[in-house]
Amino acid sequence: MDFNATAEQRMDLEAARTAPPKGFPALPEIPAARYTSEAFHKLELEHVLRKTWMCIGRDNDVGAAPGSYITFRKLGAPILIVRGRDGVLRAFYNTCRHRGAPVVRDECGQTSMLRCQYHSWSYGLDGKLISVPDAHDFACLDKDKRGLLPIRCDTWAGLLFINEDMHGPSLIEHLGVIPNDLACVGMEKLRTVEKQSYILECNWKAAMDAFVETYHLNTIHPEVRNMLDAPANAIELLPNGHSRQAMRKALQPGGNWNTMDGAPDIPEMPELYRRNTITYTIFPNIVSPMEAIGVPMLLFFPIGHNRCEMQAMFMGPDWGDAARPQFWGDFLKPYTKVLLQDQENLAPIQESMNCGALSGVMVNYQERRIYWHHEEIDRRIGWTNIPQGLAVARVLDDFVEEPFESIAQRVA
Fold first, then answer.
1. What percentage of residues in the chain have a pLDDT greater than 90?
2. pTM of the prediction?
3. What's the CA gap between 297 and 195, in Å, rounded?
4. What is the pLDDT of residues 302-322, one digit of tens each?
5. Range 15-38 average pLDDT
6. How far apart (Å, rounded) are the C-alpha atoms in residues 165 and 167?
7. Which of 140, 189, 328, 350 could disulfide-link to 202, CB 3.0 to 4.6 Å?
């Protein structure tokens, strides 16, 4: 594997190959119990999902006015994200430091103060404890030490991230090469076109697996397979569990999203992203292809060990005060159909794993992004913490792209 080749050269090499590259290992089966074990799911929650930077939406999901807030409960903890009087977004456990009642009850809103509705302990938008009724009855009360418990909160490219681990790497350190890659896209300037939510009857990893490989493209996506040159498909594994894939488009007139009538355009998008679909997996829960018309983004959240939620966001160039362009309706109908096609097999796959009919998941060279995602999960959990028979073997460390330059720079 030539890490010095450009993305275009790698796609040419992939299109021409008749076997995996020399020296690439056979990928061991992924134990199916990783998708069905409640104990393994608890390890993921404890060591991965609640201790890494989880994208939960866009930063403008929280209103611009001071005191605007949203709540988030998808990982088991009650979390509040609120905009301070200084405009900064902060996250806290939505838990009064008296006896644990919430300081806001609605999913979103705006307030001038965070007040527990049980006993009226009141907190500022910065989480500091301001007021306690009958404070004289608390002999040991130190308001400076009883503020709301903070959670790390940060933004990048208009996306909102939280992390319950107060001591790990920063968001930018976690993202690695990705901010440099995607600076040319300008996602923070894009407008949310639509949000969709799907409840899937499968483990969250099984759902992600379906969207991080294109081996299935010619089988279940007849509308899309003529839009892409599937063999010209270059994959790069990145540090911290991230990955990216470049797939060449078939750019016949009208045959791709960005050649359709009325298609919007991100003017800063480089030619690499116009000629090809560049898809990023950002560990642990984002899958997103970059398109000149805009950016579809999928977010995955577990609901127990055998059920999950997939949120689909669509972001495009701002159209001002006018009605949403007709193009988006024309685009979302077939794109939603593609998403539904990807979901059709997920519940039956989970059923097969639950009953033992599928004891292990076999993945090939084209599907190595799946295996890389699992390897990173085990790194975060720690191999000594994983029950016997549930770990994946470490085989891909030598096939990681070093963060020395961005994919966009290589074709500049």
1. 80
2. 0.94
3. 10
4. 999 999 999 999 999 999 999
5. 95
6. 6
7. 350
- Between the alpha carbon of residue 224 and those of residues 12, 164, 235, the distances in Å are 21, 39, 19
CA distance 403 to 322: 42
Vertex 224, ends 201 and 178: CA angle to 5°? Answer: 75
For 51, which DSSP code? S
* pLDDT in the model for residue 251: 64
Place of tokens 């899937």: 200
Length in residues, the chain: 412
Which sign does the torsion angle of CA 14, 265, 280, 287 carry?
negative
Residue 131: other Cβ atoms inside 10 A: 13
**CA 23 to each of CA 1, 26, 94, 234, 398: distance values in angstroms, whole numbers, following the listed order:** 9, 9, 51, 17, 10
**What residues contact residue 137 under an 8 Å CB cut-off, 6+ apart?**
none
For the cut 80, the answer to whether the pLDDT of residue 3 exceeds it is: no
β-pairing, 228-237 vs 191-200, is: unpaired
Helix (H) or strand (E) holding 271: helix 271-275
Q: Tell me the per-residue pLDDT of 374-406, one tens digit each, with 9 for 90 and over.
A: 999 999 999 999 999 999 999 999 999 754 344
Lowest mean pLDDT among 103-112, 115-124, 216-225: 216-225
- What kind and span of H or E run contains 335? helix 326-343
Burial class (CB in 10 A: 0-12, 13-18, 19+), 9: middle
Angle, helix 204-211 to helix 368-381, in steps of 10 degrees: 140
**Burial (CB count <10 Å: 0-12, 13-18, 19+), residue 121:** buried
C-alpha–C-alpha distance, residues 144 and 146, integer Å: 6
How far, in Å, CA of 19 to CA of 237, rounded?
19
Rounded Cα gap, residues 251 and 14, in angstroms: 19
Average pLDDT, stretch 329-334?
90
Segments in 33-163 forming alpha helices (H): 33-36, 38-44
